[in-house]
Amino acid sequence: MAAQLLLRRRTAGFSLPELLVSVTMGLFIVIAMVTLFFHNSRAQAEIERANQQIESGRYAVDMLTNDLRNAGYYGEFDPTLLPDPAAVPDPCAATVAALKAMLPLHVQGFGVGDTLPSCVTDVRPGTALIVVRHTRACVTGDPNCSANDPAGPLFQASLCNNASELGSANPADWYALDVDPAQLTRHQRDCTTTAGTGTPAVTRRFQTHVYFVANNDRPGDGIPTLKRAELRYSGGQLGFDTIVPLVEGVENLQFEYGIDTHNDGTVGLYTSAPAGANGCAQAACAVSNWRNVVAVRLHVLARSPSATPGYVDARTYGLGTAADGSARTAGPFNDGYKRHVFQTLVTLANPVGRKQP
After folding, report:
1. How far apart are CA 116 and CA 240, in angstroms?
2. Peptide bond into 85 cis (omega under 30)
3. What is the pTM of this model?
4. Cα–Cα distance for residue pair 103/74, rounded to 1 Å
5. pLDDT of 204-262, one tens digit each?
């Protein structure tokens, strides 16, 4: 009898209180694991947002910096003696004659309140634009150049000293810029005194880039994006029909331009509006100021790709100075996106090098 009672106790299993305690402990463990997983996932998502924000800001700054360092590079040609344009030009003018007239202006900017160029659309309000002009460093036909180099005008700098090229009193004879290869008639140093002789000078792709911040990456998606309008030649026409999205998450872009006021290659003053600097009120003065820009300060405001739950951005961000010298700021935005300002100073090596001994 005693053996039977002992056997029943061994096979009876858990009692109800024991089962309830076990289930409760199991629930606590599951809740703890779910909570840990949730916080880890949230932390990982926040790290990814921060990484993407930093990557976007740095990449935007690096891209603008690299292009600005090439501003005013035209191979062996020195545009110093070219005449000033009659007025600050429309950078979207896409004719060979207009491109030649704009050669002396290696950079050109549009600030808040300026009439925007016609070749850009969906520009984010309160942001600035910059135009950068130069040729590619590599020569046409160089296998190290991009195989997908888009078609565009070609530039040719003369190295020939005869009377029809570098020996001419007209600086327009010292170079060639055209979409028609038949018009690229400048020569290397092996030319003779007879016009049209010698080895043809190398050609380089001439580029004009217009950088701006758009409201959308794709129509209606609401993602602020750094974009670039590019001068290209297609279908027998020059134009800026190609708009290239570059960096998502760039929300604001501002510039300050360092103007050489003593013609020695050094900055005399910084301003966000060179056309009106030094009390300038005439077209010729405005053109001269743009022509004497030798440095550019960049201010890039980048935001995270998505909002952070529970976060409210109440900060104010400094983006240099406005045309009147006051501080230019952005925010507070009072939304869930985290932001950071990236800044750098770029010296324009080509204009500076031509001014210094």
Report:
1. 14
2. no
3. 0.87
4. 9
5. 999 999 999 999 999 999 999 999 999 999 888 999 988 999 999 999 999 999 999 99
